[in-house]
Design brief:
Number of helices: 25
Number of domains: 4
CATH architecture of the largest domain: Alpha/alpha barrel
Helix content: 40-55%
Strand order of the largest sheet: 2-1-3-4
Length: about 700
């Protein structure tokens, strides 16, 4: 155990991850001017350690090495040791992760990288054990070797650092392609996903398996575009397999980070806000397409989990829930057969156990991860009961087990609120509120929007993170893009003009701060942000979509709504900068290719005019949002608010017909007859696009 009397400079930080290390015997520093100056003044290399609070192996390395007095002495003697929360400083994480991947061929967290006092990396890796193990050098040997190299071979260190810096700068360079921007790029991605699809368990590739929400959104668009049934099948099968597996919390709702196996059984148990934002919206879209009650239930349970477990009293959304409780990964989520019998009684326990694959020997380290192994009809038949009796036992059992689980020690929760992730969740709640007619979801969305605009801004500029009553760090590109996009979605689903005005204001600031006027595309860090060794551009979609992808989609939607062609031109520039890479690595551009699909379409332009709370207005709104129409823009004009018509040309001279709420649908520079009957609106929305309507770039 660390000496609780020892306190380092991390004790003054707000990040839960940094605070976890505040009593290590290591003389940790936060990344700030004082720490960087100390490295220069003492001519000591920097040992930069980057992780996050829900990272299991980060906790392991802390226990094994950072709480070890002998290892801490080596670190304190030879290095200025700086600890960074990657969720607070994704700009640092991206630069130094790229460097370690170049040096070692792989990356991950904890990230361990050694820098010169000029902040240039020259050696690094990820997890190091406390002694040599499994062909991995022990951390003390690494520390002594790096310290010796820095003192004895400064020329070699400088040469390595200079070479890496050159490669890091080249990584951000991208040239515009002159090749066509056409649907073949999207079709190529669909073919690539088909080749990697797992027909037995769903998903793409083999273990470990990540929930590829962005790729599946692209497949849904492919189905919507040309009726590709295989694309839809890959999504629906994967979504069912995931939601029946252990990666989904069968009791409390919400998804864990990823599955360690191919069949979605054993997850890495942390829960990330950004995963649940993307997956809840994906299941919502599957429901819009199929009207499958299963998909709707999973979507609603995931939203309800976030509202219940991950939402602050201020309206902000928390970042993560840890994988561990009481120092054991997954302990909060697993069950023994005996405990279930004690809580439910033998009859109901037998039925629930049969449905959720519970056994005496367990499926995870002697315990059971609940997962649906067979359909309810099969389980009921084999158990000699009706399906109704089985469902009754399962639903009662879920309630009882949930109540019992609440009495356990919960996993730690990282309660910092990150702008980009809040934006992603806000957009999902806003769309779900309209599609499912859930006023409670709308209230969550609007409170979150108020929180962001009130607490995560400094004047016109957005800030990246909020914790303990204080916002800090200049926001990054994905913060601006995700929040502005979410506010636009909130406007489309509510018709409240101030959300559109806020979206436009943030978009203009984003362009001024991040747009590269010389070579095109958006930098990840803003012009007013901290100067680092590289000002890079992030184009690849990873666990979260890249800022350039979200920005391109945002600019296209705003361009269609406001008729600002300058926005669309910037989006096309992003497509041209990434076109060749997207052709070679389509699975890394799911969000970007979805934005391209919007660009190549002729979006439906939908206007609803009428009282905001009028039942007839709600009926028209229901027709719009209950179906999967990814390439659309929606504008509402309420009889008591004319503000939006000043910004949105579509709203001008659009009036209720005969005093009744009215919908207008336009596409490809032509408008259909205004309608007040929801059935007539449904027919217009379901009509296929005119032939030849799709564009090329």
């Amino acid at each position: 155990m660390p000496d609780q009397k020892h306190t380092n400079r991390l004790a003054g930080e707000s990040s839960p991850y940094l605070l976890q290390h505040a009593h290590n015997p290591v003389d940790w520093q936060p990344w700030d001017d004082e720490a960087l100056a100390r490295s220069r003044d003492e001519d000591k290399p920097i040992l930069l350690s980057i992780g996050y609070s829900a990272c299991h192996w980060c906790h392991v390395m802390e226990r094994e090495s950072f709480e070890n007095e002998a290892i801490a002495r080596l670190m304190n003697e030879h290095f200025v040791s700086i600890k960074v929360d990657r969720e607070e400083r994704p700009d640092l994480d991206q630069i130094y992760m790229n460097a370690v991947q170049m040096m070692t061929g792989h990356g991950g967290w904890p990230l361990t990288v050694f820098l010169t006092p000029d902040l240039i990396p020259f050696y690094g890796g990820t997890y190091f054990p406390p002694e040599d193990r499994h062909n991995i050098p022990g951390f003390p040997r690494v520390l002594l070797g790096v310290a010796q190299a820095y003192r004895a071979d400064p020329e070699g260190v400088t040469q390595t650092a200079s070479s890496l810096l050159g490669e890091l700068r080249r990584m951000s360079a991208a040239c515009e392609s002159n090749a066509a921007l056409d649907v073949e790029l999207i079709d190529n991605a669909v073919r690539a996903l088909s080749r990697s699809y797992d027909p037995r368990h769903g998903g793409f590739g083999s273990a470990p398996k990540f929930p590829a929400a962005q790729s599946m959104e692209l497949l849904l668009r492919a189905h919507a575009r040309n009726g590709d049934e295989n694309a839809l099948r890959m999504v629906t099968e994967t979504c069912r397999k995931m939601a029946e597996g252990g990666i989904y919390d069968q009791l409390g709702g919400g998804f864990h980070r990823y599955s360690t196996d191919a069949r979605w059984l054993v997850p890495h148990f942390e829960k990330m806000l950004y995963d649940n934002a993307q997956l809840a919206r994906l299941y919502l879209h599957v429901w819009q397409l199929t009207k499958d009650d299963f998909s709707r239930r999973v979507a609603e349970e995931t939203f309800e989990y976030v509202a219940r477990e991950m939402t602050d009293a201020s309206g902000g959304f928390y970042s993560t829930q840890d994988a561990d409780s009481e120092g054991v990964e997954g302990k909060f989520f697993v069950w023994s057969r005996a405990e279930i019998a004690r809580l439910l009684g033998e009859d109901d326990a037998a039925l629930l156990s049969a449905y959720y694959g519970v056994s005496d020997e367990g499926n995870f380290e002697g315990e059971n991860i609940l997962n649906v192994t067979r359909d309810a009809g099969t389980v009921a038949r084999e158990s000699g009961v009706t399906v109704g009796r089985l469902r009754e036992a399962v639903e009662r059992g879920r309630r009882v087990l949930c109540e019992a689980r609440e009495r356990r020690v919960k996993p730690a929760r990282d309660e910092k609120m990150i702008a980009a992730w809040n934006g992603m969740m806000l957009a999902s709640f806003a769309e779900a509120a309209a599609a499912l007619e859930r006023d409670d979801f709308r209230a969550v969305a609007e409170r979150n929007a108020d929180f962001i605009l009130d607490s995560l801004r400094d004047g016109e500029r957005l800030l990246h993170v909020f914790k303990d009553g204080r916002a800090k760090h200049h926001a990054f590109l994905d913060d601006y893009a995700c929040v502005a996009s979410a506010l636009l979605t909130l406007y489309e689903t509510t018709g409240t003009p101030r959300w559109l005005e806020a979206s436009l204001a943030l978009t203009e600031t984003m362009i001024g701060e991040f747009w590269d006027a010389e070579d095109g595309g958006f930098f990840y860090t803003g012009a007013s942000g901290e100067r680092l060794i590289v000002r890079h551009k992030d184009f690849f979609d990873n666990a979260t979509p890249s800022g350039n992808s979200v920005a391109a989609d945002l600019l296209l939607r705003l361009s269609a709504l406001t008729e600002n062609e300058g926005y669309a031109r910037k989006a096309v520039t992003v497509f041209r900068l990434t076109r060749d890479a997207a052709e070679r690595y389509p699975s890394a551009f799911g969000c970007l290719l979805s934005a391209l699909d919007f660009h190549l379409s002729t979006p439906k332009e939908i206007v609803i005019v009428g009282g905001a709370s009028d039942d007839a207005t709600r009926a028209l709104r229901r027709e719009v949002w209950s179906r999967f129409l990814p390439n659309k823009i929606v504008a509402e004009s309420h009889s008591d608010d004319e503000g939006a018509s000043k910004i949105v040309p579509l709203l001008r001279e659009r009036n209720p017909i005969g005093g009744r709420p009215t919908a207008y649908v336009c596409e490809n520079y032509a408008c259909q007859q205004p309608v007040s009957d929801p059935r007539h609106l449904a027919a217009q929305l379901d009509a296929p696009a005119a032939k030849g309507a799709r564009r090329q770039g």
